[in-house]
Amino acid sequence: MIDVGHGIPDIELLDTDMKPVRLSRLRGKITVIAFFPGAFTGVCTKEMCTFRDNMAKLNALNAEVVGISVDGPFANKAFKEQNRINFRLLSDYSRTAVKEFGIELKDFAGMKGYTASKRAIFIVGKDMKVQYRWVSDDPTVEPDYSIIMEEANRLTN
Fold first, then answer.
1. CA-CA distance, 49 to 80, in Å (whole number)?
2. With 0-12 CB in 10 A as exposed, 13-18 as middle and 19+ as buried, what is 13?
């Protein structure tokens, strides 16, 4: 599992418009990478909408949010549109990112053989190194959003 102080892998994922995005594009920015198990699930919707509602505060800190799930780009696009998500959602349909970050959630929701992402937050500094990490083995547990805001604020000051 990628830990604090380690660099993140330069993986290429698809955005909701089917455009490839390399994680190296995060260099020079403070970025909250929010891995979520599945679009259109209750807790994931609440989490992504909480980030949506806090984007003005994060933008004021020159920080951005990127959501990543194993859902396909089409499902992510519908999820983004339905919930008016105002940040980029990336598709890890091949499970490359969840494997590289070490956050695979096997047999998600009791579906044998279906691997999703654990709910996880990585705050990445301008140098693409992890400055904060939170990972839950329980997909129903949300992160402490106040800590995420504090960490993002700390990195910008």
1. 10
2. buried
Active site positions, annotated = 44
Q: Spell out the domains of the chain, with CATH numbers in brackets.
A: 30-156 (3.40.30.10)
Q: State the amino acid at position 108 in one-letter form.
A: F
pLDDT value of residue 155: 87
Closest CA to 34 of 124, 115, 157, 94: 124
Cα four-point dihedral sign 96, 58, 119, 88? negative
Ranges of residues in the chain whose predicted pLDDT is under 70: 157
